[in-house]
Design a protein that fits this description.
With 516 residues, the protein is mostly helical. The chain folds into 4 domains: 87 residues, Monooxygenase; 112 residues, no CATH class; 135 residues, no CATH class; 98 residues, no CATH class. Helices cover 65% and strands 1% of the residues. It is built from 28 helices and 2 strands. It has a two-stranded antiparallel sheet. Helix 18 packs antiparallel against helix 19, helix 18 packs across helix 20 and helix 22 packs antiparallel against helix 23. It is elongated, with a radius of gyration of 35 Å. The protein starts with 8 loop residues before the first helix and ends with a helix.
Amino acid sequence: MELDDVSWEDELQEKFSLMSAISEEAGEDNKRWEYTSGGSDIGMMNLSEEIFIFILRKLDPTSLLRVGSTCRTLFRVCSCNSLWKKHFQVSFGVQFATATCSITAKAAFRMLFMWRTLFRNLHCNRSMQERLFAEVPFPPQRYWTQWLVVEATVPLPSVRLPSADIQELWGLEADVLEEKVKDKDEEDELMKFEWKELHDLAVEQHGGLARVYQHVLNKQHCHDHTELETLFHQYTQCRFQWLFSYWLFRQPPPFDRQLRSVFLQWRRHNKTKVATWGGTLCDVRYLASLHPITADYWRGRLAHGDETLGIQSVEGYFSMCRSLVAWILGRDWGRLKRRKVYEDTLDGVYLVLRRELQDKVVEHQRFWQVAKVQMTRVCTLEETAANYVNWRMIESLPYYKLYMVSGNSVYLNHVQGFLQRKRLVHDWIHLEENVWVQQLLPEPLNSLLEYHHKIPQDSLHGDSVSAQLSRVVWLYLNSGQQLYLEAVKGLVLQYAQAGLACYRCLNPGHSLEQAS
């Protein structure tokens, strides 16, 4: 049975991984939450335990652990059985019977929560697999076999144990087992059963699933749970990496080839690192960094940090990528345009859906719906740019991304205005009357005034001639103020005249026309 409420599960996992440190001793500093007014001595801690319990019933398990970690008094109140019995039933679907269970409801919830989380993610947890797939009859595997009693379906071979072990682990009576063996006509000392068959027998024998849980908890009460806590803590630290690696490298062969192709399609990547795809030395963190959605998943930022729901969004994203690649390859476009449409569309999709991805699962249909809108906007921007050089130049503009996200034509007009102003600068410097200016300007300044040049942000700083001209050009292109264009012309002519004076000093008696 899966947990019903996953919104708090991620933080609860982190809390339980540190539970060994949260005990009654942790409250020795006895912090007090007191809210007093005037000279009154009445504060929150003066409330009765009944009132506290009534208030604390409204909290989820994570919040309950938080409150209980503040002081000894609240630790004791927050450990009340009546509070944790409710969470036990909601999370595991069975009631907790205080009278017949030898441990508290809080301790039972804690152990079962750790076990259920580990078992539910068994497919990507190599450490857990090594313990469960070992020879079951021998210690310390009996500890893990006892936990498996509460599971109806177990991905392990049939159980082969002596009759005494089966009776102890599942709490079955000898005559029930003898009757089953007689029906099977088996004479082997080790009795062979399917896991589900034993589970059903245990439920029937104990009179319900709740009593099976109580039987397992009573048996486990006397055991040391250090290994369970260690595995759980290890899983909470690595669960996103493990599940992402499993999803990326454990697909069926045909789908695996498609996924690898789409994952690297038109993405700038290190061929050396990609060559180890799926191998022991593979840099999985590097692969995750190639896409924003996998990078966010790696950091636990999808679907409120739920690793299982988050990977569903990742699957939907790459399913959309396959559809997008197929659509783009079907167009009569050149290689450069195909790549840029793909990259810009994916960037636009993530800009639109990033906040939605943090809150919930986003399915393939939703991804593809947004992708079609983003493709339309990318193609509109490409038509506005008129050529690939201009298209690359405007991609760093804030209006470019704003149009991708909103589709507002105002931002498209800003992009068009930027290109028109860049053309004006280009046309002015190429006037016939300014040929001498081009000849005298150094190459970096000539390059800056060319229509195909993109101004890097780091070139706007400093006192150099190039930095000064870059700032004025940048102000004109982004604001459209005529005074900045005049300032550009003035600076260019000033630098050209300075260059002319220097040339005359070095070459007296020679004109610029003679030199050219």
